[in-house]
Amino acid sequence: MRFDLLHRLATIGTILMGLLALFLSGEFGVAVVVPVLAVSVAGPFLWRPLDRPWMGPASGGLALVVGIGALLWALSTTDYLYAAIVYALFLSALKILFLRRAADFMQMYVLSFLHLMAAAVVNPGMSFGVAMLPYVILLTLALMLTNLRRGIEAQATAPGGAGGPAAEAVRLGAALSRRDLVRPGFVSATVAITVGVFLVSLVFFFLFPRLGLGFFAQQSRRGMAVSGFSEEVKLGDFGNIAEDPEVVIRVKRKTGLGLNDRAVVLRMRGQSLDQYDGTTWRKTTVRRHQLEPDIDGRLRVDGRRDHLNVPGVEIQEIYLEPMLGATRVLFGMPQVAAYERPSNALEALRPEQWRFHGDEAGDVTLTGPPSVAIVYTAYSDPRPVDAVAMRAASTDYTAQVRETYLALPPQQAAIQDLAANLAKETSNPYDTARKIEWYLRDNYTYSLSSSHGDADPLADFLLVHREGHCEYFASAMVVLLRLAGVPARIVNGFYGGVANEFGDYVALRRADAHSWVEAYFPGEGWATFDPTPASALDLRSGRSWLQGVTDAIDAARLTWYRWVVEYNLEKQISFLAQVFQVRRGGEGFSDNLGRQDFHEIRDRLKELPWAGMGLGFLGFLAGGAGLAIALRRWRRRVVQMSLLAPGDPVLVAYLRLRRALARAGLRRERSETQLEFAARVGAACPDAADAVTRVTLAYVERAFGACADGPPANLGATVDDAVRALAQHRVPS
Amino acid sequence: MNSVQFKPEDAAHLARAVFTEVGRVFLGKPQVVSHAVIALLARGHVLLEDVPGAGKTVLARALARAIGGEFRRVQFTSDMLPSDITGVNVWSPRTEAFGFHPGPIFGNVVLADEINRASPRTQSALLEAMSERQVTTDRQTRALPEPFLVVATQNPHEHHGTYPLPESQMDRFLVRLTIGYPDREAERRIVAMQGFADKVETLVNAVATPEQVVAAQAATSAVVVPDAVMDYAMDLVGQTRGTEALEMGISTRGAVSLIAACRGAAALAGRTYCLPDDVKEMFLPTCAHRVVLRGRGTAGAAAREEARALLTDLLARTPVPGD
Amino acid sequence: MGRLTDFVWRSDFFPRKLSFTREGKIVFVVSVGLGIAAVNTGNNLLYMVFGLSLALIVISGVLSESNLRGLRCSALPEIRPVAGRPATAALTVTSRRPRFPAFSIEAWPMVEGAQSDPARFLDVRPGQSLEGACRLTFARRGVYPLRGMVLSTSFPFSFFIKSLILPATGRILVHPRVHPLRAEDLPPASEGEEEHRPVAGRGSEFFGVREFRDGDNPRHLLHRRSAGRVEPVVREFEQAGSRAVWIALVNATTPGEGGAERVERAIEKSASLAVHLLDAGRTVGLATVSGAVSPGSGSAQGGRILDFLATLPSLEMNPPGIDEPIQAALATDSRAFVAWVRP
User: Fold this and answer.
1) Any idea of the CA torsion for B276, B278, B281, B284, to the nearest 10 degrees?
2) With pLDDT > 70 as the criterion, what percentage of chain A qualifies?
3) What is the ipTM of this complex?
4) Domain range annotation of chain B
5) Which of A121, A532, A536, C20 is within CB 3.0–4.6 Å of C24 for a Cys-Cys bond?
6) Looking at the complex, does the CB of residue A48 fall below 8 Å from at least one CB of chain B?
7) Is B1-221 in CATH node 2.40.128.280?
8) Per-residue pLDDT at A476 exceeds 60
């Protein structure tokens, strides 16, 4: 391929990948995306017709005008970031029309690099990573080709060539169209360098200390809207999300059932709602108290259940995707005894950031930064309900229970009759609940598409259509139970799950959202009932042939989030610990470091109030300053050496002598001339005097005299003499 | 044929010979002699500041004798006129025309004794002749002989009825030297030799001709000053200008003089190039009388010592180039 | 220890010089900005981009170093440049590496006070020797010491230019400029036939008879006249225009404004004159305050005169009698034409 064409193609590829990373965020409208992409593909081939002398000032003026426009726009919309990015896009679209010389290409790559930076801010999704990998490869190639182009340009336009600028342009054009410039050696060098750049980038990424916390929030991404977990749920809301395959919860079970069976069905309880007004469920049990961790750092939810003493306790590590809203319901398999959030170095610095609250209903919420995925562990009691104890439970409800869990809006007589009929045949509330559960399962049909009237949707479901989705089943059961005098509430959560063979976890999707029922038995607590026909739910989590691909993508996405987007100091330490085999992290999402380790780190960090920002920033600045100083030193050294040709035999001899002198403790003062120094050495060490003087004389003659004849004969031997004499000599310091 | 005369090596031989000859009668002060010879090579002039009887006359006479040149002496007094130095046109009845009677300045080595006794007008006539190397009387210009070296003396301890040289005039002397007392051994020999004091000419051999000295001066001016050495000298000069203790640093003329003196020092050492050593050696003699101490001026022995101390400190603080 | 460092120093450790290109500076500044942004936002993707920029810089540094390893540059060939005109010198760059080619190599001699346009090589394969041309331009005549040979590269990303300074010694003698001469610049004697006086030489016209000397052509022996004499006698022939022309250059002037420049111009004029006369087949000698070149002819004499003029000091002093050496030199050849050149 012609060199010029190859170089321009590599440039287009680089720019496109940068733009892709930016545009895949979905933040930019078609009006921006399409023209920018079009110009980026065509632009590199348009420079020849556009190469006019007036074009430079014209484009500069245009850039200035648009820049002012962008500034005004930014000031009016206050969306500075967006305005800046759009302006950067404009600049690159302008610059790409004028790719003439190597320097233009370099400027183009700088602009493209700015795109990538912008993308890093607006696009936390995996698409960024997908675009960045080819970006690294193409950028490396493009930079190397630019280096080659620079050499070709210098050769073709070297002064002394025949003809004027026109002839120069022709020579350059011919040189750039050659096909033999990219030799196999160049190709293999490019490949090797690309791999090197990629690996070094990774090393920097993982090893650069994540200490700074700085002024802004940490990495965040857009939370997803999942209805059903607010304090007010309108009946029928679940239907809208029923088919959404987006994963909300990923669960890794540490104990309990193995994951050999792919079709594992998990029930993840979320939040209960107690008040029903005929169309909407509300939560009135909102009085919350902050949960304080016990000595092990665990947050006990159910005082009666000691999670450590439960046989076969179900420990689940849960990765919860960001959701809209700052207060988030925690999910866990019923009955949850305790939650535990992995202690975190970041959290240690800002302990107020995450707060756990329990409420009167025993639901647990977590308050913290929005738009951040959270990882926590739930300890659940997996034992089935003790039916005997439940049947024996008293029906002596407290006033508060009555008020909260037995209240109902007036119901149609038919429903009251139904409840009375179902309760009539049983002797205790537990059996009544089971009876109602089975009645609904057997006599009603699961359907996502059915619609119910707005006035009294429940009556519509129970008496007319006799089909609906889980919310109707659950609501109906609660109403029937309450009519029968059994305290009950509706519970929202997830039910179902797909085992991911790549990530060894169970994924629960938005489509797995589910409602069920809990009934209260004094002394025994709440028991779970699910009136929705189970066969319908199993059908919902069926596997398709595409499941393997979906699983792989979901596992990759999880890895991306956990190891890239949510990479932090804690993971960094754990990563280093793994690398150096100090301590292996767990298999879960939380990368368990020993609790003691974190306490230690936390204590240390607490001693430094602004440690995060300060350390990182100062370290960075100090590193930069050190680098600058080192560079300057190096440069100064070179300048000083340039009194003589480096490697000059006389200089080599003199330096050898000087090293020998330094070993003997003799060093030239800054204000001492070479000859004065030699005289001082001669006085201190008479044996070496002659040789030292001779070498020094040869040196100053060479360094200061313009004479460029060869070195005096036997200079090396003279130095040897001096070195020998000096070896005997030690100056008392 | 094909001979390049005036080689620096030859200049060194000549200068060494002169140095040795003068040293035979001017005992115990080789540094003063070498600085005087350097001034000669660099086409400069010497200002000797010392008490009377330190041997200033001997130095000048010996120098004149060694280069085979003519020695002249001017004893300055307060009633001296410029024409007493430069010479006058005198009507000669025999030729019925004005004939020029050259003054004492027409010599190769001129000893201007106790220059601070003369009026400023007379002083400036001398100084002008020194720098122009010519004398103008009645609109007629006469070149002074070459080589031309003025050795002026000044008694720093005497103040009454004197006109100390102003700073700008001090600048015209390439070097200022002080002789000081010789050590015991040298003084012994001087005293023993005293009977011959008037016969310096008989003790010193002429080892060169004035023409050879001119050639040596030409060779000296061709001595190379490497960039590094030039930078070093400029560093030193520049620092005198920024010093708090100095009211006036070294002038550009001073810098030119320093480099000229370094060339002389290099030539005396037989080198064709300057070293930082030359700068270090010549810095004090060429520059100490050119700086003005804040509130002290240049006059007086105390001011002189203070200026020397300051410049010595500067030398100790300035890094020397090389390696 | 000392031996080891000496060995390393002598074998492959040459001083290096690293300088940023404009793009390199931009990349460095952008990286610093990125680092600050990443540290302060904690945005991991910014860390990733930051890592990429650092990787580019680090790889750039490592590769520019290894790209120069094992490369050698030939010594600078003998050149006699003229001040103000570019002189071309051929340089050979040799790769002593067993594998891996070197890319984007530039080579030039390190000469203070010279403008160099380097010899450029797109790639040098292992074991390969490539020849390229570099151009040196000197503003002024004189001796320029060669400080070393420089090999440099901007490979791989043109962020840095890394230079390796190989030891080399020697000096470059730069001749004074030679200008085309105007008629009035030429000494009248070189053209005027009226001043022509016969000069003995190897011409064709009979001139006279003299005693035989070593080196005379034996064919010109006059056997008849030689009979009865101790020394044989030869015919002498007149050589056309063979009277030497002495260029008397006063390379000294009164100190003051532009004095040195005036001497420079006089030196250039003398050089031009010498070249012109020698081209015309004349015998030319040079006398200056600082020495003389005895008369000769041909291009070798041109080289001698120009070499001499290259290092002639330009004296800023004008005492009486300074031209005595010139007079002395001229006195040895009373029949010569003298062309005075004064500043």
Assistant:
1) -90
2) 76
3) 0.81
4) 1-221, 223-323
5) C20
6) no
7) no
8) yes
